Amino acid sequence: MSSAFPAMKILQPLSTTRSPEKPLFDLLKSPSSFLGSASKLRFNAQKPSPSSSYSSSCHRPSTIVAVSDVVKEKKTLKSNSSLSNLLITKEEGLELYEDMVLGRAFEDMCAQMYYRGKMFGFVHLYNGQEAVSTGFIKLLKQEDYVCSTYRDHVHALSKGVPARAVMSELFGKTTGCCRGQGGSMHMFSKEHNLLGGFAFIGEGIPVATGAAFTSKYRREVLKEAGCDSVTLAFFGDGTCNNGQFFECLNMAALWKLPIVFVVENNLWAIGMSHLRATSDPEIWKKGPAFGMPGVHVDGMDVLKVREVAKEAIARARRGEGPTLVECETYRFRGHSLADPDELRDPAEKARYSARDPITALKKYMIENNLVNEAELKAIERRIDEVIEDAVEFGDKSPLPSRSQLLENVFADPKGFGIGPDGKYRCEDPKFTEGTAHV
Amino acid sequence: MAVMLQGVVATAALSSSAAFDSKGAQLPTVKFLLERKGGFLVDRSDRRLAVFASNARARSASRLVTNAVAAKTDKSTASAASKIGGHEILLFEALREGLEEEMDRDPRVCVMGEDVGHYGGSYKATKGLAKKYGDLRVLDTPIAENSFTGMAVGAAMTGLRPIVEGMNMGFLLLAFNQISNNCGMLHYTSGGQFKIPIVIRGPGGVGRQLGAEHSQRLESYFQSIPGIQMVACSTPYNAKGLMKAAIRSENPVILFEHVLLYNLKEKIPDEEYVLSLEEAEMVRPGEHITILTYSRMRYHVMQAAKTLVNKGYDPEVIDIRSLKPFDLYTIGNSVKKTHRVLIVEECMRTGGIGASLTAAINENFHDYLDAPIACLSSQDVPTPYAGTLEEWTVVQPAQIVTAVEQLCQ
Q: Which residue from A198, A210, A408 is facing B192, i.e. has the nearest CB?
């Protein structure tokens, strides 16, 4: 399927006035096509209740048809072997399942460790959004780049950073992936091409754009023919109102950079509902405004995300430019471990809990006889061991010593300058001890 | 292949004849100061400068020095390159020469900024480069400072060596998020995994009635950011040398140029040379007082120096060049010699480079001071448009003369 993305969608103007007669969210007329499958999925918008109480105005359109329904449809259409019509093989399924379970188990352990006083500060957990990370990142090669925000533990794990390194970093130990200097919100890995880990929303998007620029530069200026690295930039719905988002959409489309902008729209920016903050809440529509395809996908379903991701990443690799993918997803926990999470409607949370991506994938694989329960249980046990090992490793690792304080301020420590004695400051033996006065 | 200049030659000669316009018009040709550089070796060159003026401490009015010249002994047989070759060049051309040489040397070096490509740069520092290297290597960006600076950071992290041009340094205020959070911090927060060899450059300072927002001095805003280096160029010689050094440095470097200095003319060596980012430049050795300055104020100081010499003073003028970190060795040696310090800067008074320098000198060389450090900075006002008001905003040579006289009492 070549260039299956519709370049422009016919857009209906959305009614933005809030009155009992006119709902906030108008019916969307044009369908979003689900790529990779034969069927077109209708985007059913549910009218919010006319009483327009606070919680009901946060209503979201109901779900896109679940994958298993699509598969059933396909099955009835073709009567030959059902296995060949499935979206994944057994190996792929197990890989996806393991990655999502790893993400979930890790985050749950983070919460435990936080409340036990092993990690501090702001910790933002990814529970519920695993389908997005797994669906996208598992399609990447080692030399592809991932750029994230502060909700980055699971992106790091999906990209291949060992759980030990991430847990150790969270404990602030010197064996962490950033030597304990970054923390929860600043996960980096040169080996796995994870470019961070950013605390201010939006500031990672230009960095991701830069990585995509390097990829294009290497291909076109340095003439490295084989270089086709793709960059994925992950960020949330709140970021989509930030200037850097729009500026980068423009630049990426302008220069056809090999980047995919992945919006993890979980409807909430701490306590600010996406619908209260955004004039036009449908983020995917902002892609075509800048000259790139905008796609909306059910982010609670890893297989759907994966299908969209395949096309977006392939597009970027072919040099056709960027894509904006809006993943409708949800975080089961609060914004961070310090967030009491009182504003969100329990009914909304329940609705999304029912769409837990791990449960959904499990159901799919078992119903289609890809795996049996025992295999999945084995994975879960293995992951538990990985997590426990990570915690143990973190516990045993040493805390950074004083000498580490100044080591990484400059790549070239001559940047500390020349001292009164004429020698470079960094030659001062006290410098490495961390007691030098700079 | 160009050869790195060897030999220790220290010559600073200032012609006293040419007129100097306080607004920075045509200035006398300044012969350059050559320094021995052993690549980026850590051992410093030993620059011993002999001053001929006798009786340095005697400030009798009878000893009038009519020529503001301090001659130096040559340490090596190599004479000043001004005698054997070199070419005359304007400051913006020197910047471009440095840029071009580095782009030839390393294909990963690229330029990003507004109008740097087809337009050649608003001050022509990148003229002709887009034709030579292509539109991707000399990238015309949309007007989105924060994002293209961030893009340069991302490119630097993934292997390129970008140079970001702020059309005016003031525009980089829009990029403060990326400069502070990402340029300065990512090497540290990534535990040393990613380096950011980026150069951010552009014209700043008070020009000629450009209005408040185009006449900003951002040195003070950026100086506290950990992880970056700041340098200010003031002559074609050091502009080219610092540009090359900044590009070769693995650290993020902010290179401050001045709007009014782009048309300075000087003869620079034909051979390749790179200056040190951390060292200060001795402009005029002296005995009575140390005057520390940088960028355009160097010329106001040198003009004041002429008057001072006529009045019998012997000021030592140092262009600190490295705004962060300070070269405490050169500065310290000078303080130990003269025991009096005057700082002349264009930065604002509050929290400016002068303020930091005052603190650093007080901390390190307190015992050597015979008088409190005086600091002449610009007024803490948004630069007015009116010419007269603008003139009073920045430090003028007359004020420098008065300050020296007061300090030397």
A: A408
